[in-house]
Amino acid sequence: MRHIAKTVMDTSGGERAKFMTAKTPPDLIRLDSGSPSFATPPHIVAAVKQAIDAGHTGYILEKGVMPLLVAICESIAAETGATIAPSQVLITNGSSSGIYAVMSCFLDPGDEVIVFDPSYSLYPHVARQLGAVPVPVRHKADYQLDVEAVRRAITPRTRLVMLNNPNNPTGIVYKEDDIAALLDLCAEKDLLLAADEAYSKLMQPGQVHVPVLKFHRHLDRLILLGTFSKTYAMTGWRLGYAVAPPDLIDYLYGIHRAINGPICNFVQRAGIAALQGPQDCVAEFNAVYHKRAALMHRLATTIPGLHPAAPQGAFYMWTRFDLPQSAREVRARLFERGVAVRSGSEYGSGGEKHLRISYSVSEETIERGMAVITDVVSELAKEAA
C-alpha cells in the first residue's frame, strides 16, 4: 500500500479542498467567486506582448526583474513612507506561494501560528500541511480585531501572526488603532507578523486601508504579502510579491525557489506596467464594486433571517443567518438550486451560521442569485418550523 504523508491526509479532506474540486454545473450562478469579472487592462496586456517580442522568455535567476522590484518599492514608499530596498522584495506565484514560503520558513512541526477566525482558509490549511498548529482567534462581534484575545492565545510555541486586511471572507477593513495595538503586542512577544493585503485597493466609500508598513518602528518583524490578482484583474497571471526584513528575505527566497522556481519573466513585465501605468482602471473597478455591493446588501437586508454586514473592502458580503442548518448544509442546498456561495465554516469555526457571497459578478447575476437565496432561506426556515 502506498504511504501518504500524515500531514496531507489530515488536510486533503477539508471543506476548502472538497469545494475546490467539486464539479461545477455549466449554468451555475457563481456568487462564490474570488476572481474579478473584468478583463485585465489593455496596457498591461500590451506590456506582456512587447516583453515576449523583446525576448524576455528565459529564467529569472534573482528574486525578480529589477525594474519590477524597484516599482514595488516605489509604490510602497508612496503609500506608507517606508524605505524598502529592492533586495527585500521577492516575486511570488500570486500570494499563495508567498504564504506557503512564509509558513515553511518560520514554522517547525508543533509551532503555532495565530490566525484570525474567520479568515482566509489557506492559512490553517498550509500550517497543518507543515505539521504546525493554527491557533484561531475570534473577532469581536463587529468582526474587528480582538487584540486581547490574541494576547491570551500566545504561548511559548507561537512564532507568527497572520493578518488578512481587508479580511477575506468578511470584507471588513481593520481599524488603525487595533492594527497598531497588534503590532505592539508582536513586538512585546517578539513575534513575526505576515500581512496579506491582497484586497488593499478595493475599498468601499468612506473606508481607508491601513498598510502595516506604515508602522515604521516595526519594520524589523513585518512581512508583506501582495498580489496583482485582485487590484488589476490578473488572477490567472499568478503574480505576487513578498517584502521582508533584510535578514529574512533570503530565507524566503530559498524556500520559494525550491517550491516554485522563478516566476515567469514576461509576466513580471506586466507587473511593471500595472504599477507604473495609468491607475484609472482601479478607480473604474471600484466604482462598479460600489454599485454591486450596494445592490447585494440592499437585497440581502430584505431576506428574513439574514443579517448581512455592510461591505467595507474586497468584494465579499458576509452574512449571518438564523436557521438551524449548518453553514455547510445551507451552502449545499443553494448549490443544489443552482447558486454557489461559500460556507462561513470554511473560514473557521467563527464562520459557522454565516455565508460569504461575492459581488465580483454582474448586477444581473447578483439579482438572479439573491432571488434564489431568498427562496432557499424561506424553504429552510419552513422545514425547520
Query: What is the tally of helical segments?
Result: 13
Helix content estimate: 40-55%
Per CATH, the architecture of the largest domain is 3-Layer(aba) Sandwich
- Unreliable segments of 5+ consecutive residues: none
Q: How are the strands ordered across the major sheet?
A: 2-8-7-6-5-3-4
CATH class of the largest domain: Alpha Beta
- Taken in chain order, the helices and strands follow as HHEHHEHEHEHEHEEEHHHEEHEEEH
Distance between the termini: 49 Å
Written overview of the protein:
- The protein is α/β, with parallel strands linked by helices and 385 residues long.
- It folds into two domains: 6-39 and 281-384, Aspartate Aminotransferase, domain 1, CATH 3.90.1150.10; 42-276, 3-Layer(aba) Sandwich (Aspartate Aminotransferase, domain 2).
- The protein has 13 helices and 13 strands.
- The chain has helices spanning 6-11, 15-20, 42-53, 66-80, 94-106, 122-129, 147-153, 176-189, 246-259, 265-276, 280-301, 327-336, 363-384, and strands at residues 29-30, 89-92, 112-117, 133-138, 158-164, 192-196, 222-227, 240-243, 306-308, 316-321, 339-340, 342-343, 354-358.
- Strands 2-8-7-6-5-3-4 form a seven-stranded mixed sheet, sandwiched between helices. It has a four-stranded antiparallel sheet with strand order 9-10-13-12.
- Strand 9 (306-308) and strand 10 form a beta hairpin.
- The longest helix has 22 residues, at 280-301.
- The chain is globular, with a radius of gyration of 21 Å.
- The N and C termini lie far apart (49 Å).
